[in-house]
Each structure stands twice: as C-alpha cells, then as structure tokens.
Amino acid sequence: MPELKINLDGAIYQKLLEAAQENNLNPEQLLNERVHQRMFWLLDDRPHQWIPIDEWESRLGGDDCPMCADLAKQDQVNEFGYPIAELSFSRFRLGMNQGVPGYSVLICNQHAVEPFYLAEEDSIRFFNDMRHAGEALFKALTREGLNPIKINYQLLGNEFPHMHVHIVPRFHGDAMPHRSLPADYHQETLRPEDYEQRVRLIREAL
Predict the structure, then answer these.
(1) Where residue 15 falls among pLDDT bands split at 50, 70, 90?
(2) Whole-prediction pTM value?
C-alpha cells in the first residue's frame, strides 16, 4: 500500500496523540482511520463558498429552478432518479446514485424556500408526505434484507432553494455514525431492473 508523509505542527500532533490514546490506537492508526472515513470531504471539489448574492436572489424567485422544471414534466426517469409516487404535496423519487441504498428525494410541489413560506395546510401535507416516504422506504429496504436502523431527513436547499428533502437510510456500520451522511459520498449506479425492483417495493409499502 502506498505511504504518504505529512507534517503536523506541535499542537495538532498533541491533539492527535490524545485522541489516539482515547481510542487505544497509535497516532498513525487513528490518522489512517479518520482519513478513510472523511475521504469524501478531503476530495470534494464542489465550490466551498456561496454563489454570488444576485444569482442567489434570482434562484429564490424560481429562475431556472431544476426542481420546478422536473415538476412541470410527466413522471419520468431523469437526472434526479426514478419516479416512485406523486404524494399529497410532493414528488417522491429514488435517487440515481444508490451508493447509500434507498437514497431518495422528496420535492415540494410548490417553489418555496422554507416551510414557513407555505400555507399551514400545505406544510402539514408536505411533512406528512415525508413521514410516509420514510416509513415506506424503511419497510422496502427491510424486505430487501438490507435492514436499515435509521432514516435521516436532510432539508437543505443551499444550492437550489426549492424545498426538498434528501432521505438517507442509515445502516449499522456505515460511515460517520455521529453525523449526517452525504448521499453522494459513494457513487453506485444500478442496472435499470434493479432500480425498478426497488421502486416497486417502495410503492408497495406506501
């Protein structure tokens, strides 16, 4: 296995040493373990700053919103993934990237940036959709024998401010148990028939 040499200042090395002792490891073992756990962030080449404020304000109003464009089309397979269902106030899709098995997206039917911008009854409908989507996903993955232990719900929108929820199943032994797991930390594309089988199981559980 290739080896790399890195230079650490005294303060950082002392923290590394203390953490290693707490975990009954030597510093090299701990550093190797943490680098592997956080490789997604180390190699992440996405922008590390906000887009210009004028472009952000344009997106707030729905200009060139890819999710609005998705909602305007009939249910179909696209870059967002495979359609699962049209729910009460949202579109439910299985993500194209299945590096996290079952990763899905729930897209609000209205271009709203925050839940409090929705009428109260619409907000209730959307979050009920989220509840039903998460439950169906949990049941479907259990039927597959994947046995999720938790479902995470990530309502972000920092790039495209159209309210949507990344629904990320969690499995015992997966990376980063004490924090959110980015759905794209690992890339995996399935065969079309495998997407369709997973979609079928989720639909049956709804």
Answers:
(1) confident
(2) 0.83
